[in-house]
């Protein structure tokens, strides 16, 4: 018989599977709060005006379709490092930054995982509990060992900072600590500046290597600089840092796969060698990255006017999400005054971690046709003012 006969059916992805189920539903009231993709107030996908403008420029320039170098488009690599560290950062002047354009956040993380499996052999990657579900796949598929550190406290619907510090402290020296740059997915709960500083000091003491997953720069507060404060703080404290960057959310370039794997290391010499190895890993994985999305990002970041327009549009997206957060909290407080709903507005970014149990999530989906992940996460980017009352009714019904 065929060897393919033994292949077992893989369950749908827990996040992308929600969208498939949503599409299949015929219910008029259905609401998709599963996937983290921005929607307009009309709940339609959004292409930024500044992206359309950059596309027009690119179209008119009639550039060719040759391969990019393995490390990607130079203008994009410059732009992405400028955005991460701020353009006048000393690490840039000292040329101790290795930056490889890669396939959005996921592909960048995968290249980073490949680097760990080759050059940081035997070290364990510590990921937050909970985290974005794909982290486990990415490190696991590269044969990198991973473990959880405590992060979420269900009692307070907040950060278990004590547990987090204990676990990072108990990890063997030289471990890799995966941190979300801002707008933690799925909880929407970030350490505060004082806590970040303590985490950085602990990494120094333990010789840990911080690996920042920066998937939402600009989406937490609406400010690119404020949202990069954590990785910048770690670099400024002298740590060598690994970073994956994604432009899926902040530029809305989801399907174009734009991102970078960046490593800020101790010297120019090390940065050159590190980049040469990142290139070797990428070469075998996908050879070289796609041109189109990188051109869009580079056009925008490297042009003062377009950069300004982007910031305005990004603040608009973050602002719409924050507005529906406020409306949802108010609706929940009026429908169910006995419960503390402050978590809805203290969490930031696209997501809110509601504390709904898997059985309660089932009620949300089966009875109310609200599609969301089993962990109780809702994407507020998929909510508008018109649907706030309906969502609040469903949540109250499910909690009661
Ligand atoms: N990291 C986190 C925490 C994310 O939430 C996401 C997107 N959901 C990614 C990385 C990667 O997304 P992409 O590959 O589209 O950049």
What does this entry show, briefly?
By secondary structure, the protein is α/β, with parallel strands linked by helices.
Question: Could you characterize what this model shows?
Answer:
- By secondary structure, the chain is α/β, with parallel strands linked by helices.
- The protein has 16 helices and 13 strands.
- The protein has a seven-stranded mixed β-sheet, with helices on both faces.
- The longest helix has 32 residues.
- The structure holds 4'-deoxy-4'-aminopyridoxal-5'-phosphate.
- 4'-deoxy-4'-aminopyridoxal-5'-phosphate binds next to helix 5.
- This is Aspartate aminotransferase.
- Its cofactor is pyridoxal 5'-phosphate.
- Homodimer.
- Belongs to the class-I pyridoxal-phosphate-dependent aminotransferase family.
- InterPro entries: Aminotransferase_I/II_large, Asp_trans, NHTrfase_class1_PyrdxlP-BS, PyrdxlP-dep_Trfase, PyrdxlP-dep_Trfase_major, PyrdxlP-dep_Trfase_small.
């Amino acid at each position: 018989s065929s060897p393919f006969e033994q292949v077992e059916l893989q369950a749908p992805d827990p996040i992308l599977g929600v969208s498939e189920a949503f599409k299949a539903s015929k219910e008029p009231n259905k609401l998709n709060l599963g996937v983290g993709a921005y929607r307009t107030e009309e709940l339609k996908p959004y292409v930024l005006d500044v992206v359309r403008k950059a596309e027009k420029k690119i179209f008119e320039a009639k550039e060719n379709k040759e391969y990019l170098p393995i490390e990607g488009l130079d203008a994009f690599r410059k732009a992405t490092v400028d955005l991460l560290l701020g353009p006048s950062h000393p690490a840039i002047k000292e040329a101790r930054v290795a930056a490889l354009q890669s396939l959005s956040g996921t592909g960048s993380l995968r290249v980073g995982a490949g680097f760990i499996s080759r050059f940081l052999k035997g070290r364990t990657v510590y990921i937050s509990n909970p985290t974005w579900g794909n982290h486990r796949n990415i490190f696991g598929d590269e044969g990198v060992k991973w473990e959880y550190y405590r992060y979420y406290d269900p009692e307070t619907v907040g950060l278990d900072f004590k547990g987090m510090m204990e676990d990072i402290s108990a990890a063997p020296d030289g471990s890799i600590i995966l941190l979300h740059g801002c707008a933690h997915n799925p909880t929407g709960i970030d350490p505060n500046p004082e806590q970040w500083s303590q985490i950085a000091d602990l990494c120094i003491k333990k010789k840990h290597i911080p690996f920042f997953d920066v998937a939402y720069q600009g989406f937490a507060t609406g400010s690119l600089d404020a949202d990069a404060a954590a990785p910048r703080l770690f670099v400024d404290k002298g740590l060598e840092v690994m970073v994956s960057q994604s432009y899926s959310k902040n530029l809305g370039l989801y399907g174009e796969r734009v991102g970078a794997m960046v490593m800020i290391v101790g010297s120019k010499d090390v940065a050159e060698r590190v980049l040469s190895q990142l290139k070797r890993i990428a070469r075998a994985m996908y050879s070289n990255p796609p041109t189109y999305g990188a051109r869009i990002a580079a056009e925008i970041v490297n042009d003062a006017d377009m950069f300004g327009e982007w910031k305005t549009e990004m603040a608009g997206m973050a602002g719409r999400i924050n507005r529906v957060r406020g409306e949802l909290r108010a609706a929940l407080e009026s429908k169910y005054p006995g419960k503390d709903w402050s978590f809805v507005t203290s969490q930031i970014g696209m997501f809110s971690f509601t504390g709904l149990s898997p059985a309660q999530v089932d009620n949300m989906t089966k009875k109310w046709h609200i599609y969301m992940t089993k962990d109780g996460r809702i994407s507020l980017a998929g909510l508008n003012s018109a649907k706030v009352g309906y969502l609040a009714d469903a949540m109250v019904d499910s909690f009661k």
